[in-house]
Amino acid sequence: MSQSALSAPPAKTAGVAVRERPSPGRRVAEAAEHSWRPVALLLACFAVWWAIAAAELVEPYLVPSPGATLDVLVDKSDYLWQHSWITTYETLLGFVIAVVVGVLAAVVMVYSTTVEKTLYPILLFAQVVPKIAIAPLFVVWLGFGIAPKILIAVLIAFFPVVISMVTGLKAVDPEMLQLSSTMGARPWQTFVKIRLPASLPHLFSGLKVAVTLAVTGAVVGEFVGANEGLGYVILQANGNLDTPMLFAGLLVMSLIGVVLFVLVEIAEKLLLPWHASRRDASMTTSY
Amino acid sequence: MPTLPNDMSLRKPSTPVRGGAVPAVGIDAVDVRFRTKKRDVTALAEVSLDVRMGEFVALVGPSGCGKSTLLKLVAGLLTPSTGEVRLQGERVSGPRHDIGYVFQRAALLEWRSARRNILLQAEMRRMPSAQAAARADELIAMTGLEGFEDAYPHELSGGMQQRVALCRALLHEPPVLLMDEPFGALDALTREQMNIELRRIWRETGTTVLLVTHSIAEAVYLADRVVVMSPRPGTIREIIDVGLPAEREYAETMTRPEFASATGHIRGLLGSVGVGG
């Protein structure tokens, strides 16, 4: 349609796919439309859990009722809060270190094949070694503080960051790079203006994996040796056969993972609006 | 530079240099060989071509005949195995900055608006921003992109994206514009309209254009001369002077006998090598 008005200057909006801004009411309705299924599934799971507990199909000390779990969540909220904060802190610190180191490693690897060939086998080896198996070693080396937990979180979150960033940096249109060299761009200009932004969508898909893995890393670290954090809470509850507390700990842990995941997704939407809108296919191209 | 007149006297009569001026593009006995894992491939063999300042030359030929390779040589993105390429009389030995390049795919940065995509050229070259902005406005008006400046590439149609790419390639007023099948991905109607636009823009800017295309009609309508190439190894089969007037109204040009004879001749050349146009 846009090309029909070539001789005359085209109309203001011809050829541009118009993205309407939905009203707040419609946005809520749309959000509900998108999210009712997972919410319903979650509620169904809770209902099954509640039914199992209410009918006493399983001994209460094996599966506590949702009510008992909720009671613990409320009664022991200070205790849970304190330990959750420690786990969150370890997770975030591990995640941030993994991102910084991972992105830097990826950049160096993409710009130097020698470095890539040297680092890649080691990276793969570090990925293949079960982190749970080496966790006790870190406790021996670094003690019972938060250092070994952060190290495990870093190790476990590092790999998806590096892989996604390397993929992203390599996925740049080669013609774009040729174009850049005809523009007389310095290497750093090409990196900052073309390669880095082009790699961000890939990086973010890696970050989403990494942030959930970082939670696992921190908790694994706490399992091996800690006197604080959600891993410690769960181990304690397990030892005391305190299943309501165990369930409460698990719930909070999952919640931390979900919240961090959503935060990364929000960051992605804010930083890469062009990518998000493209992925959502909220546009149509007109010819 | 001082050796140039001598040089030119050695050139083939089919590629004359009018008025003795320095040719915009000089390609002299160029061979390009690639080494793949299994064998050596000769992409171009013994190619010589001079393009005058301000001339519009189209390159046609079967797929894989090295047309795009030729453009990359001129841009300095590739170096010939033997022979020499000169741009404005200067030997090409690395990526050249005094050209504009348009690819088949618009190759726009999807996180930048149309206008900021155009201005990428200025940012990379560190052009004064006021001058770049003025030039961008001028080009936006010339290509009919007004009203689309703030649209992102994914919001633009293929033709509009290609216009943005063209503006970007022309921002620094390059003496030579290299176009590698710029309209190959467009539908027939849009393509025709882009041809009309390009012809007009070329006449307004006076830039030397080297255009690679698969469309014989496009080549004849747009160009002063059409270079017909043979399949691999790519050689120049013939250079055809289209002999059409400078003022070319699209529909009227299509009906002219010169147009018919030029396209017929080219089609015959391409057909005789077993590849249809």
Q: How does this structure look, described?
A:
The complex is a heterodimer of chains A (287) and B (277). Chain A is an all-alpha fold and 287 residues long. Helix content of chain A is 77%, strand content 0%. Chain A folds into two domains: 1-57; 63-279, MetI-like (MetI-like fold, Orthogonal Bundle). Chain A has helices at residues 24-54, 66-75, 77-111, 113-128, 131-142, 147-170, 174-182, 187-224, 230-239, 243-271, 273-279. In chain A, helix 2 packs across helix 10 (243-271), helix 3 (77-111) packs across helix 9 and helix 5 (131-142) packs across helix 6. Residues 1-19 of chain B have low confidence and may be disordered. A six-stranded mixed sheet of chain B has the order 6-7-8-3-9-10, with helices on both faces. Helices cover 36% and strands 22% of the residues of chain B. Chain B has 277 residues and is an alpha/beta fold. Chain B starts with a helix and ends in a 5-residue tail after the last helix. At the A-B interface, helix 7, helix 8 and helix 11 of A face strand 6, helix 3, helix 5 and helix 6 of B. Chain A: It is a multi-pass membrane protein. Chain A: InterPro entries: MetI-like, MetI-like_sf. Chain A: It comes from Streptomyces luteolus. Chain A: Residues 84-264 form the ABC transmembrane type-1 domain.
